[in-house]
Amino acid sequence: MTILFSIIYSAALTYLVWKAFKVMSTGWGISGTEKKHFDKSNSKQKKYTIHPELLDKAGNITDEELLTVRFSNNNDSSLEEKGSTTE
User: Fold this and answer.
1) Total domains present in the chain
2) Is 17:23 a contact under the CB 8 Å cutoff?
3) Under a CB-based contact definition with an 8 Å cutoff, are residues 61 and 55 in contact?
């Protein structure tokens, strides 16, 4: 029983290591010129992430007022100045 477990464990470990190197090899396969071109194209394009919450049903950015929340330390002096307490 112990020998069977050792064989199955070794086979599974070998398979997973082989798959990991196979996946990593796709990243190693990029040549220097392709990598330079990839880096250049990303620096020229300025892509912004627009969160879906900011879009209306038609896909346009909404003009409505947004609720914002500011998180700060519990030792924030601005709360003490305003006379509010954090409970």
Assistant:
1) 1
2) no
3) yes
On whether residue 52 sits in a domain, the answer given is yes
Cα distance between residue 28 and residue 43, in whole Å: 22
d(CA 29, CA 83): 61
Task: Tell whether 54 is covered by a domain.
Answer: yes
Residue 39 counted as domain residue: yes
Q: Indicate whether this model's pTM tops 0.85.
A: no
In angstroms, the CA 64 to CA 75 distance is 33
pLDDT in tens, 6-62: 999 999 999 999 999 988 887 776 655 555 555 555 555 567 788 888 888 888 888
Task: Find the domain containing 48 and state its range.
Answer: 2-62
What are the angstrom distances between the C-alpha of 5 and each of 10, 15, 16, 18, 73? Answer: 8, 15, 16, 20, 53
